[in-house]
Amino acid sequence: MAMDAQTIEQMILEGIPDARVQISDLRGDGEHYSALIIAESFRGKSRVQQHQLVYQALQGKMGTELHALAIQTGTPDSVPEASRE
Questions:
Q1: Could you tell me which CATH number the domain at 5-83 has?
Q2: Any residues with CB less than 8 A from the CB of 39 and at least 6 apart, and which?
Q3: Rounded to whole angstroms, what are the CA distances from 51 to 22, 46, 60?
Q4: Where are the domains positioned within the chain?
Q5: CB–CB of 24/33 below 8 Å?
Q6: Is 37:52 a contact under the CB 8 Å cutoff?
Q7: Residues 6+ apart with CB under 8 A from 42
Q8: Nearest-angstrom CA–CA distance, 49 and 51
Q9: What's the pLDDT tens digit per position in 5-58?
Q10: What is the pTM of this model?
């Protein structure tokens, strides 16, 4: 069973409480998503470490219930102004 965008967002927020999360359904099929996750707690961490935190928040669902997720992470001052909505 596929996960919906709201569930993905909720799981990320539970795992990374200071995050701002934007989830987009890339194909409208409920299986291919992109996520923009901005969090102060990412500061000082490499991109790999940031993504590992996101995967941990998803509790092993990546590749099973969550088929495809393109992840973009950063700190509040590292993303373009247009992405900060």
A1: 3.30.300.90
A2: 16, 18, 19, 20, 73, 75
A3: 15, 9, 13
A4: 5-83
A5: yes
A6: no
A7: 50, 53, 73, 74, 75
A8: 5
A9: 999 999 999 999 999 999 999 888 777 899 999 999 999 999 999 999 999 999
A10: 0.84
